[in-house]
């Protein structure tokens, strides 16, 4: 989807209704996701930038929805803690907004040294979050092993590429990403794209408020 192709709100809203029907009482709440707010001090580059808090917040919302949809469909249990921590940290150690190939590996090492995060999740979830962070960067063909959590984080990250204007649905690993989440992800980005003009400290809350207003999460 190019940046010039605007998603039709009615189509996106229909997809959101479908997501709400599928998730029912499991639709995540704003309050729950708010507890994963990243610290702007974590970011090596500008926390308000294109890979900053707003992006991590949208990836947090998108991975949560996709993970529950995939769990339901495939009858599997995913490590949500690893996924959420990866969502809010995968890009924090970027040193530029271009091709910084080592930023995933850097983020993997970095979260392993954060006492606050280590106390929050189990050692096995921490190891998986580090693996996701490390391998979220390269093309799938270069990744030694792709656990379902990595495939979900990569799809959620890819869905927010709408902000870069170069989403390629053929890269998605899950049909839900292509068929159900793509238009809501575009709508969420469009509705929060002005977040770049508000302070980084407020961007996370702004994205969650917007997701709640759009019906993607519970208020
Ligand atoms: Fe990244
Ligand atoms: Fe990212």
Q: Overview of this structure, please?
A:
- This protein has 219 residues and is mainly α.
- It has one domain: Orthogonal Bundle (Hypothetical protein af1432), CATH 1.10.3210.
- It has 10 helices and no strands.
- Helix 4 crosses helix 7.
- It is globular.
- Bound molecules: fe (ii) ion (FE2) (2 copies).
- Residues 90-91, 103-104, 136-137 line the site of one fe (ii) ion.
What are the salient characteristics of this protein?
219 residues, mainly alpha, Hypothetical protein af1432, binds fe (ii) ion
What's the overall geometry? globular
| The number of domains | 1
Hetero groups bound? fe (ii) ion
Task: Please state the structural category.
Answer: mainly alpha
- Number of helices in the DSSP assignment: 10
Strand content: under 5%
CATH topology group: Hypothetical protein af1432
Q: What proportion of the residues is helical, as a percent range?
A: 55-70%
Query: Which regions contain 5 or more consecutive residues with pLDDT less than 50?
Result: none
Q: How many angstroms does the end-to-end distance come to?
A: 29 Å
Secondary structure layout plus pairing:
Layout: H1 9-23, H2 30-34, H3 53-74, H4 80-89, H5 103-111, H6 115-120, H7 123-135, H8 148-159, H9 175-192, H10 200-214
Helix pairs in contact: 1-9, 3-4, 3-8, 3-9, 3-10, 4-7, 4-8, 5-7
One fe (ii) ion (FE2) binds near residues 90 and 137.
């Amino acid at each position: 989807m190019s940046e010039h192709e605007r998603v039709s709100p009615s189509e996106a809203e229909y997809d959101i209704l479908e997501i709400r029907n599928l998730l029912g009482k499991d639709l995540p709440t704003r309050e729950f996701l708010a507890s994963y707010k990243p610290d702007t001090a974590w970011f090596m580059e500008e926390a308000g930038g294109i890979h900053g808090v707003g992006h991590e917040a949208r990836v947090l919302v998108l991975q949560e929805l996709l993970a529950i949809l995939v769990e339901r469909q495939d009858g599997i249990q995913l490590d949500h803690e690893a996924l959420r921590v990866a969502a809010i940290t995968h890009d924090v150690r970027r040193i530029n907004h271009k091709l910084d190939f080592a930023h995933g590996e850097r983020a993997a090492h970095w979260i392993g040294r954060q006492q606050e995060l280590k106390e929050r999740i189990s050692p096995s979830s921490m190891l998986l979050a580090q693996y996701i962070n490390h391998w979220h960067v390269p093309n799938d063909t270069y990744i030694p092993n792709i656990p379902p959590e990595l495939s979900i984080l990569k799809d959620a990250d890819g869905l927010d590429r709408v902000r870069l204007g170069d989403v390629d649905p053929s890269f998605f690993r899950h049909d839900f990403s292509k068929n159900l989440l793509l238009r809501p992800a575009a709508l969420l980005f469009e509705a929060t794209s002005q977040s770049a003009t508000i302070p980084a400290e407020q961007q996370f809350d702004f994205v969650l408020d917007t997701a709640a207003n759009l019906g993607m999460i519970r208020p």
